[in-house]
TrEMBL record:
Lineage: Bacteria, Bacillati, Actinomycetota, Actinomycetes, Mycobacteriales
Segments forming domain Peptidase M20 dimerisation: 191-287
Name the UniProt record assigns to this protein: Amidohydrolase
Pfam families from the UniProt entry: M20_dimer (PF07687), Peptidase_M20 (PF01546)
SUPFAM superfamilies xrefs: Bacterial exopeptidase dimerisation domain, Zn-dependent exopeptidases
Cited InterPro entries: Amidohydrolase, Bact_exopeptidase_dim_dom, Peptidase_M20, Peptidase_M20_dimer
Organism expressing this protein natively: Corynebacterium xerosis
């Protein structure tokens, strides 16, 4: 039996659980929770693992891992994140969020439902594969905190080391019902930077008696735009965004300070470091030019590593997808979004593959992730998500062993 034949056997009765999985998904979608506060969701996951009959290990604040130990063989880890976003939902679906100001507008509820579906199929069909499957349910992805929390809580010591780690994300940029793979960098490294520049407050009618941080901040915003256009090579990709500019309380008061919130993205860690160095250099120089009374303050937060797929692992996943899904196995474009998934496999020293799951039949009008209107088609998305996990996992769990994926 080939790996894809094993996957087909494992998935043969997936339709029998469709109604239950769709009900679970709607429940998760109705009850979103913010990063590192996902206690209800974590409890639902624990209840589902208990119902399926799978070992459940709590790790960190709300993280959980379902473990299926099924004899000798490789160890495959699959990650699903489960936090939501601080925003109102405008999807119009009848199972929309009942929690004001919180919404599953990124699809993490799809990820959880798909992974639980895969866990149930793998557990029910142990005769078709051999090894260990780790279902990692990770909180706090939207805050860049959940993967680090699980690592800090000892995930490396509490679980067997995976031979390969896998993850997927539902997207509107991959055709509905398709799975998209990509070698190498797939998601950017990212950082948010809070920058406070200082002036000297005075009456708006007497600007000569103070130092105006509003003018200083405006000069900084304009100058930061030159970093990508004039300091990053045309062959590289980078983004510098000023997403917030806050200062002052009244039109005739020059304030003491202004705070800027800046976000950077890059597909290369060296480029990211150059962006940060350029930002600090420009801000300090503009402060000197404006006679700022003290040095600017910099605070880095919400930092995400580069997500870079291992070539050998990705080739193996793609071959499995091609064989099982045919034309629904496609290339995934690189995305200037960011993830903290890689923190966990990097802590283990494990190579990984992260792929895209198409969530909308109508790609032309598909809302982007984090849109208040984001609500993927329930089917075939939930089925395809569970199928993709089983097919990718079987490329190891139902294949000849040992397999030695290339190191990163």
């Amino acid at each position: 039996m080939t790996a894809n034949e094993a996957a087909a056997a494992i998935l043969a009765d997936l339709a029998d659980t469709a109604a239950a999985r769709e009900a679970l998904y709607k429940d998760l979608h109705r009850h979103p929770e913010l990063s590192m506060e996902e206690h209800r969701t974590s409890g639902v996951i624990a209840d589902e693992l208990a119902r399926i009959g799978v070992e459940d290990i709590a790790i960190g604040v709300t993280g959980r891992v379902g473990v299926i130990r099924n004899g000798d063989g490789p160890v495959v880890a699959m990650r699903a994140d489960f936090d939501a976003l601080p925003m109102d939902e405008e999807s119009g679906v009848d199972y929309a969020s009942v929690n004001p100001g919180v919404a599953h507008s990124c699809g993490h509820d799809v990820h959880v439902t798909a992974l639980l579906g895969a866990v149930e199929q793998l557990n029910e069909h142990r005769d078709a594969w051999s090894g260990t499957f780790l279902a990692i349910f990770q909180p706090g992805e939207e805050a860049g905190a959940g993967a680090r929390d699980m690592v800090d809580a000892g995930i490396v010591d509490k679980l067997p080391k995976p031979d390969v780690a896998l993850a997927q994300h539902v997207l509107g940029t991959v055709p509905g019902g398709a799975v998209g793979t990509r070698r190498g960098p797939v998601l950017t490294t990212a950082s948010s930077i809070e920058i406070t520049v200082h002036g000297a407050g005075t009456h708006g009618s007497m600007p000569n008696l103070g130092v105006d941080p509003i003018v200083l901040g405006a000069a900084i915003v304009g100058r930061l735009q030159t970093i990508v256009s004039r300091e990053v090579a045309p062959t590289d990709t980078a983004v510098v965004t000023v997403g917030s500019f806050h200062g002052g309380t009244k039109s005739n008061i020059i304030p003491d300070s202004v705070t800027l919130l800046v976000n950077t993205r890059a597909y290369d860690t060296d480029v990211a470091q150059r962006l940060h160095a350029a930002i600090e250099r420009i801000v300090r120089a503009e402060c000197d030019a404006a006679r700022s009374p003290k040095a600017p303050d910099f605070r880095y937060y919400d930092q995400y590593p580069l997500t870079i797929n291992d070539d050998a692992v990705t080739d193996r996943v793609r071959a499995a997808f091609d064989g099982y899904f045919g034309d629904d196995s496609v290339d995934m474009p690189a995305a200037p979004a960011s993830e903290d998934f890689s923190i966990i496999p990097d802590a283990f020293g494990t190579p990984y593959c992260y792929w895209g799951l198409g969530g909308f039949a109508d790609m032309e009008s598909a809302p982007g992730n984090h849109s208040p209107k984001f609500a993927p088609d329930i089917q075939p998305t939930l089925d395809r998500g569970a199928q993709a996990i089983v097919v990718a996992a079987c490329a190891w769990l139902a294949a000849d062993w040992p397999v030695k994926p290339a190191g990163r």
